[in-house]
Write a structure and sequence with these properties.
By secondary structure, this protein is an alpha+beta fold. The chain has three domains: 56 residues; 126 residues, Immunoglobulins (Immunoglobulin-like); 78 residues, Sandwich (Immunoglobulin-like). 26% of the residues lie in helices and 41% in strands. The strands form four sheets. Strands 2, 4, 5, 6, 9, 10 and 13 form a seven-stranded mixed beta sheet that branches. Strands 11-18-17-14-15 form a five-stranded mixed beta sheet, with no helix packed on it. It has a four-stranded antiparallel beta sheet with strand order 1-3-8-7, with no helix packed on it. Helix 1 packs antiparallel against helix 2. The termini are far apart.
């Protein structure tokens, strides 16, 4: 109907132009006046009909998307990602003229190139069967469609890195007109994972230098923070280890390494036990040398004389006793 009115309007207007060009201003009096008036009436009538159709059948300004996902939606690798849209109907006529709302892939614009899921006015959900089975298994939708509007959450399950190679959008059709929302970019993130670390328990001596290790991977790259008893000791995306110079007894305890990025966090505990140092005692060993043997003393001449005299006296006494 609208196209027919457009054709009639353009045809009548062209006829008027043709009359003006063919006969010129000076010769229009030779053209039947009733014909000119008829063309003018047809042109005005058709134009007014088009205006009336635009006012009567045009969408209410309240018919629009009232909630859209942010320009970038973040999702964790292997998890589900949701896209939430709300679409409102400005009046009963637009609700009556509503056909469907669908979600799918776009090419960095708001026009959907590959439809994923469509939801009709009666709430019926239809999937694009031309999609690869692996992609179909990832798709889901929840929500409702009513006179109050469309409140739908489209879900992409178990996302992978390949899912961020495209953009997404949503389109509502009202009386043949498309209301578009998009493009939405999906950014896949990888939660942190600790890759290298110190032993769970470390024994050190008082005064030792201690180095605790904790490295992690993830996308975006995580930063590492060290805490003890809830107190932050160090936080950096470059320095991952914790250095404790000349550790003291009071520094013993549990040290917590936490890797953090936008996708989440992961922690690891290290128990450091500090042993009291024992002072070293130096012992001196004394080796006793055996005494040197003394030289034999040669008897002198006088000693020989005394010995002989003594011997004679002893023999004399012994003979005297025997004779008695």
């Amino acid at each position: 109907m609208i196209q027919l009115l457009e054709v009639v309007t353009v045809f009548a207007f062209c006829c008027l132009l043709n009359v003006g060009v063919t006969f010129g201003p000076c010769h229009l009096k030779h053209f039947p006046e009733t014909m000119i008036q008829l063309l003018e009436v047809v042109t005005v009538f058709a134009f007014c009909c088009l205006l009336n159709v635009g006012v009567t059948f045009g969408q209410h300004p309240g018919t629009k998307f009232t909630q859209e996902p942010p320009g970038k939606v973040f999702g964790n690798l292997g998890y589900d990602v949701s896209f939430h849209w709300k679409f409102a109907f400005g009046d009963d006529q637009d609700w009556a003229d509503f056909e469907e709302i669908f979600w799918g892939r776009t090419d960095n614009n708001d026009k959907i190139r590959n439809k994923y899921i469509a939801v009709g006015k009666n709430g019926k959900i239809s999937y694009n069967r031309r999609l690869a089975p692996s992609l179909q298994s990832q798709l889901a939708v929840t929500g409702n469609v009513s006179r109050r509007g469309c409140d739908l959450v489209f879900v992409l399950n178990n996302v992978s890195s390949s899912d961020e190679l495209t953009t997404y959008g949503c389109t509502a059709i009202v009386y043949g007109d498309a209301f578009r929302s998009g493009p939405i970019t999906l950014v896949i993130q990888v939660p942190p994972k600790i890759t290298t670390r110190s032993n769970a328990t470390i024994d050190v001596e008082e005064g030792d230098d201690v180095n605790l290790q904790c490295n992690a991977s993830g996308d975006p790259p995580p930063y590492i923070k060290w805490t003890k008893d809830g107190i932050l000791l160090q936080s950096s995306n470059k320095t991952t280890g914790l250095h404790i110079p000349s550790i003291e007894l009071k520094q013993a305890g549990t040290y917590v390494c936490t890797a953090v990025n936008h996708a989440g966090s992961v922690s690891y505990n290290v128990l450091v036990r500090v042993l009291r140092s024992v002072p070293s005692t130096s012992t001196t060993t004394t080796t006793l040398k055996p005494p040197k043997p003394s030289r034999p003393v040669a008897p002198s001449r006088g000693s020989h004389v005394v010995t002989c005299v003594g011997l004679v006296l002893v023999l004399f006494l012994y003979s005297a006793i025997e004779s008695m």
